[in-house]
Amino acid sequence: MPVQHCTLPFGARSVPGGLRAVLAMLLAVVSLTSTGCMTGFREYISNGFKVGPNYQTPGAPVAGNWIDFRDRRIHNDPNVHWAWWRVFNDPILDNLVFTAYQQNLTLREAGFRIQEARARRAIAAGNLFPQFQELYGAYQRRQVSLETGIVAGGGGGGGGIPRAFDLWTTGGQFAWELDFWGRFRRALEAADAELDASIENYDDVLVILLGDVADAYVEVRTAEQRLEYARSNVRYQTGSLNIAKTKEEEGVASRLDVAQAVTNVAQTEAIIPQLEIQLRAAQNRLCVLMGIPPQDLTQLLAGRRGIPKTPVEVSIGIPADLLRRRPDVRRAEREVAAQSARIGIAETDLYPAFTITGNIFVQANQFSDLFRSSAVAGNVGPAFNWNILNYGRLRNAVRVEEARFMAEVTQYQQTVLNANREAENAIVTYLQSQDEARILREGVRAAIESRDLTNELYQGGRADFGRVFFAEYFLVLQQDALAQAEGRIASGLVNLYRALGGGWELRLEGLDPMIMPLPTEAPDVEGIPRPVPLPADEPVPAGPLPAPMEPQPVPARPLDVPPQPQP
């Protein structure tokens, strides 16, 4: 292609000869790698002297409103209380939440990932400066062969050149690849986005942890409620069995009545071991979430019974709030930003790399002579290298990064869709479980009345035991279903707040275990009691976590047909 000519914006005579040569080389490179001095580098200049696209937050599919937005129990108030577990008004749950926040190992692992990302970001920042610096020193005792060298002096010749001599050397050298095309600045952009993503991952783990703790606690209380119903029914059914036995002994009832009563008692008693297993599993889950080996939590959980009560109404904002509230959505967006920067890194390989290298040292035969100005030697100068015969490989490397970028964008959009789905599922579960529980409460009241009436009729000899059998059997089923439905209400509310991304703000309250361990007594905030003391693991590293960054959209270059330089 014809070389494009440009005129220097200053007098050529005012520039030293060596610098003029460097500038001429740069202009030649500009001419070869662009369609024109002004047009080819317009984007390069607008991007802050960096090749590759500037990042812009991608669009994401978001619903205009919730499916159940017309339900009076749903409010679009955007000020969702971040400490959502307090709506249950349960000090034991508050205690479990803060203990798990302090000691959970998965959360601690996510904190160490932030430390790793911080270090990687520091490495990327360091590449903006001379990438290679080295000090060296050496001492050598040399002797030249008489068979290969021309020597004199100690070897028996003239000229004053000794055959054997000492050589002392010390100095330093460096190499600095200039960030002419933005390779290292793009790498720093990617490292910044990866650090943000690690923080969002920490927040996501925290949101999941808080939800898991509350969900396990609800599971414990639900199992306890089901056990209470089962044991109460066993006691009542045992009384019916005794009545049937007495009637059989008196000859006013058949053996069939006793057999049916035994069947009822045995069937209800058989539920208890299964519920004990569920209760133990839920307690063990709580232990692991709190970072301790599984143990009996009966004493810790004592003092409060029943499934946590939930408010009838809830404020959840609008679906678009998920983009800023959910850490996993923000993490996916930050991963897109990091991949966008990697496109620019790949594009820099299409252009020549400019390097300044230098070497300065002192060298002498005598150690005392090292400190003389005459012993100083060295060199410094610019250089460049350019892979001009690898354009097919380099262009395809850029296309690889662009394809990965589009994959990350798609993954981000899929994450938004999944977030919307999870929120909708939690909303419908929360609302419909309330309706289910309301209906079952009516059924339980009727079943209790039916059981009591049939027992009175049976004891008075006005009904057979079959009616008592079915009344007691259906009461067990109704009460167990009611306990599960009430548990689903509480669990549905937990999952709803988790789907909304609530709770990660806890680390912004100055209680982050990656900053410092929680004090012996938790802050007296709205009656939160101190956490239960648990065995501490290894100390966590210090250092505050930066607040999550809000992405700022900037003009982006289309990625479908990226401009390519001409070799």
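[next item in queue]
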Amino acid sequence: MKRWIKCLGEYQRDALLSPLFVAIEVVMDVGIPVALAEMIDKGMAAGNMNEVLKMGIIMMLMCTVSLISGFVGGRFSARAAAGFAKNLRKGMYYKIQDFSFSNIDKFSTNSLVTRLTTDVTNLQNSAQMILRLCARAPLMIIFAVIMAFRVSTELAWIFLAVIPFLAIGFVLITLNAHPIFIKVFRLYDRLNGVVQENVRGVRVVKNYVREAHEVGKFEDSSEEIFQKFVKAEKILAFNSPMMQFSMYVCFLVISWLGAKMIISDGFTTGQLTSLITYAIQVLINLMLLSVIFVMLVISKASAGRIAEVMDETSDMQNKENPVMAVPDGSIKFNNMSFSYRGVGGKLCLQDINIHIKSGQTVGIIGGTGSGKSTLVQLIPRLYDVTEGTLDVGGVDVREYDIETLRNDVAMVLQKNVLFAGTIKENMRWGNKEATDEEILHACKLAQADEFIQGLQDKYDTWIEQGGSNVSGGQRQRLCIARALLKRPKILILDDSTSAVDTKTDALIRRAFREEIPNTTKLIIAQRISSVQNADQIIVMDNGRISAIGTHESLLGQNEIYREVYESQQKGGLGTDAAE
């Protein structure tokens, strides 16, 4: 509860004022039946028109105050609920930014998106109902019951008699419906995954004419959600008839007993009218509570899912007094092993021992699944090593301030990502202070300037989300330029020139040698020509190092390297002349 109250933040004033105005509205609504009884008994029954006029004016004033209070209270509750959702979403988003890759893998991207959208919206709706209706309904019930007891103690006990019946019904509904809603939101995660995958891969879908298959996947997920929701709603459907049954029974019993009391005990028509009005108020607000109850059952599942994210602690934290500067780009793996599942999990990398001097160019070759990408992702501490140590600049990476380490390691991943915005804006992800001249220079080094100059708006050309309006090779070159703008001590290219031709690849590598000789360069590649002039080449096989050496030594000593080289020579993928 403290967490949710804290999320109100600057909107706590609105959250406090809303119930206050609701209370004023309730007092006015409860007072109207009293005035009505006075009008009937002392005005109409006695033929006193002055009393009728007097009580009529009082009732009009009370109605006006009630209307204004309800309007103002509604505005405050809407503002508080929207602010609560804004702060909650912001807090979750900031929390996710601190997650390590393993934390994100634990929840999955689809699940996090659902929690930030659907689940937060559920809590926003519940917050507004709690501030508005959950304040009004209990107050109205309490005040109405008190006033009913003032009118007739015997008849007022009828209201209280139905409460145990309703309480048992609510508990049974909750116990049966809540687990279903938990499953429903997990299905929402899967549905989001289907939609995101389809939208991202729409070109592949259309190319293979698989629209019907994708529609089928969507319909299956959607149908499963529908079936679960129907099952849950069937349970919640008992709520309304249960409330209506209680309301009508109370109404009939009060009317029957009240009519008998008018005849035998001197009970007045005005008193019966006011009592019936209070009965209607009590039972209508019980109906409102039942609506709130349904919403709370749904939002309870959402609250649990959000709490999981908020309570998650990143497994990658800075130590006390972390190292705030990376001395150089040297890298050393010491008996290092790694598992995505941590200690005790299946090892993806085993017994890795590598020493890379600052400024060296190192090539990494290996088959699919050999652990190449996993190896380099440990350097900027996207994951932590499971066994052994990994040093950068002579210091264990776990000793560094995480931001400091990652600022000095630039990484161009296999999946090159550009963001919606201009080319300049994308480039400044590497260095937000970069000048136009620095951007131009970086793009020339990455061999991107030539195609940029051919665009209508040049460096102000708009890039669509994901870089969908540029080719794969162009996207790779832009990402390399962005990485160069960081002026890193270590530059990692994870198969990031696979979509460019061999001549352009060779020109990029030449620019690296001439322009950033002091930067340590790690190049994961499938083409031997991309790494054969490296200072050392690492050959990986099934999570282990098969061999380390130069191009010439590996040709003579390592069978894996030699087979790859010979197959590429036969396929015409030899060294480009520009090399």
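[queue empty]
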